[in-house]
Amino acid sequence: MSIGVGVVGTGFVANMHLAALKTLDGVRLVGVADTDVARAQTAIQGTAAARASNVEELLRWPDLDACVVCTPNDTHLQIGLAIAAAGKHLLMEKPLAISR
Known about the structure:
The protein has helices at 12-22, 37-43, 55-58, 76-85; strands spanning 3-8, 27-33, 51-53, 66-69, 89-92. By secondary structure, it is an alpha/beta fold. A five-stranded parallel β-sheet has the order 3-2-1-4-5, sandwiched between helices. The longest helix has 11 residues, at 12-22.
């Protein structure tokens, strides 16, 4: 069995998570989502089975089991709630939210 993981965001922190995912047995990168799909396409170069998309599309993929969120802090709450509502596992870079 392997776990299908998606990475949300394409910045510096995302690059560290993408590199770490490549080293894990039983984990496969399903895709990368970003508001700029071209940046997501760049992030998946060299990963044959991975796809680029936006968050809404990524969360509909049946082979996605978990997401790593690597976006700016002010987007964490909305993205985290969407991932939870989709029934996916979630790794959130801190802070979870900047208010509330």
